[in-house]
Amino acid sequence: MIRRQGLRAVIATCCASAVFAAPALAGSAGPGSPGAGDPYFPGYGNGGYDVSHYDLQLRYQPADDHLQGTATIVAAATQDLTAFNLDFALTAKSVRVNGAPAQFSHDGLELTVTPTAPIAEGTQATVVVEYEGTPSAADVDGVNPWVRTSDGALAVGQPEISAWWFPGNDHPRDKATYDIAVTVPEGTEALSNGVNTRRSTLAGWTTWNWRNTEPTATYLAFMAIGQYEVLDGPGAFGQPYTTAYSEKLGPLTGPAKASIERTPEVVEYLTELFGEYPVSAQGGVVPAEGLSFALENQTRPVYSHKFFQDAANVSVVVHENAHQWFGDSVSVDTWRDIWINEGFASYSEWLWSESHGTGTAQELFDHYYNAYPADDPFWQVPPGEPGAENVFHSAVYDRGAMALHALRNVVGDEVMLDITRTWVAEHRHSTGTVEQFIELAEQKSGKQLDELFNAWLFSKGKPAVSAETGVAASAAREDVPTPPAVAEIDRAHALLHDRG
């Protein structure tokens, strides 16, 4: 979830692909593609190599938003490469490939690297990029997802953010592990993914070392720098657990903690539904400014302070932690597949409500089905094919959750649980498509589900009440009650849909 301004314009990415695309001929060396082939955002990511690990050594000065970095990228060539691209918005000072200086050029978000010798398919390459810049000043095609705050910065965004603080292959198809060391002025905190393995101070600067050992998409790597109260302790299953709250939250500190500190409880509940928790750390971060949404950064979601302005909100904690399975462990294969992420995360809120007596999933389905009249534009966005301009539309979330409950109504609780657990197990730390999910649902249920999925995922208009579409007669009543959970869920989704 991110603000709409965080999306690169489709036209710009198409143009970038046209300028740089020069695929290698079969059987010969050539440059890797500057795009991963995503139909919605063709300029995202790169081809020709697969990253296994990023080592980031960063130094950040909040006073002037200046970032210096050395990124060491361990990758394997997937073709014979004469050149390759990295997605990057700052200024590269030098690039080395396998120890030797390499030529490089920069245009927009494309850093093109030409090594002194071709890299053979299947061989490992170590790429070292030294760089610096002012991320808040690095606008590309009118886009800049970096957030500078009064006491630091936030590198939090979707579907793009990594290019504003490290060079990489910015598409969920290419996941990697991370070591991230952030050096900041003493007295400043620096949060990131995974486990904080070390903190050390020298000459007025403190280095925070973070290690993230599970494959992670680039947009799910994050950094939050500023004045934070950092709490460490055991999470669910004894895992490392780190939460951080801006010291500027004031009266919102209480409701924020009353929400985020329930993360271990939420994780234990979701594990009962989906199977083993797929990552090795837990937690959350709440800044006091600069953010109007929440994002499921792997191991450690970041939440806008606005979620807690009226009261505690556990629904958003459920939503973001459900993403650890749906979105983080099992990522989109292309951004067209976003329904799987957001539908399951939103439906998890309904299941939490059902388990806590604040409204069953059927009652919540009935409410939302009736909340949108048949002529509402909401029904004009099919979640299975929303289009690049609507990947974060409310229909992807709310209609997406309704689609999953409709599936549950058609196949039954036991089969639905089997579909869900099999999906996350078979695609663990990988990606999945909507078509693969449909195929699995039909396989596990033994039913042909075209009418159901066509109505809910691929057709405009409000699905009709019928056994085939999974819409129960209770949804068509004129006196559908409003479950208690709706108030909290709606408060969470109002911000999740705020693209600012």
From TrEMBL:
Residues 1-26 form the signal peptide. It is an enzyme of class 3 (hydrolase). SUPFAM superfamilies: Leukotriene A4 hydrolase N-terminal domain (SSF63737), Metalloproteases ('zincins'), catalytic domain (SSF55486). Keywords: Hydrolase, Metal-binding, Metalloprotease, Protease, Signal, Zinc. Residues 52-220 form the Aminopeptidase N-like N-terminal domain. GO terms for molecular function: alanyl aminopeptidase activity; metallopeptidase activity; zinc ion binding. InterPro entries: Aminopeptidase_N-like_N, Aminopeptidase_N-like_N_sf, Peptidase_M1, Peptidase_M1_aminopeptidases, Peptidase_M1_dom, Peptidase_M4/M1_CTD_sf. It catalyses: Release of an N-terminal amino acid, Xaa-|-Yaa- from a peptide, amide or arylamide. Xaa is preferably Ala, but may be most amino acids including Pro (slow action). When a terminal hydrophobic residue is followed by a prolyl residue, the two may be released as an intact Xaa-Pro dipeptide. GO terms for biological process: proteolysis. Transmembrane segments: none annotated. It comes from the Bacteria. Its cofactor is Zn(2+). Its EC number is 3.4.11.2. Residues 310-456 form the Peptidase M1 membrane alanine aminopeptidase domain. Belongs to the peptidase M1 family. This is Aminopeptidase N.
